[in-house]
Amino acid sequence: MAYSDKVLDHYENPRNVGSFGKDDDTVGTGMVGAPACGDVMKLQIRVGADGVIEDAKFKTYGCGSAIASSSLVTEWVKGKTLDQALTIKNTHIAEELALPPVKIHCSILAEDAIKAAVADYKQRHGASTAEAAPVEAKQHAA
Length: 142
Fold this sequence. Notes:
This protein is 46% helix and 18% strand. It is an alpha+beta fold. The longest helix is centred in the last third of the chain and has 21 residues, at 104-124. 35% of the residues are buried. A scaffold on which IscS assembles Fe-S clusters. It is likely that Fe-S cluster coordination is flexible as the role of this complex is to build and then hand off Fe-S clusters.
């Protein structure tokens, strides 16, 4: 299977690798994946007082597509509000990286990591459970 140049670039030169302190009040952490199959993704966002994501970090254990998806979304979420970050969908990630169908699950993990990080941040800052729930959960409840 041939990877796109963008996947190779993000895999060979990943952006924003690392982590923030887990006790940092300005940080939301999303940990997603299935350790049994090997893909685990941790995404952290640092949110400013104005509600805008100022920085993002990731640690991913998985294939090149999973690492590239993580790296890409850390770039995409910076400068966005929490609600804007939630509009990033796995289809956008897969399209940008030209992921083959067998690697679409990597882009889904990245989308889920964004949702989990935003939900964690909101929960830590007193947002109600319904408010912190992923958008899809709210839509199904309506």
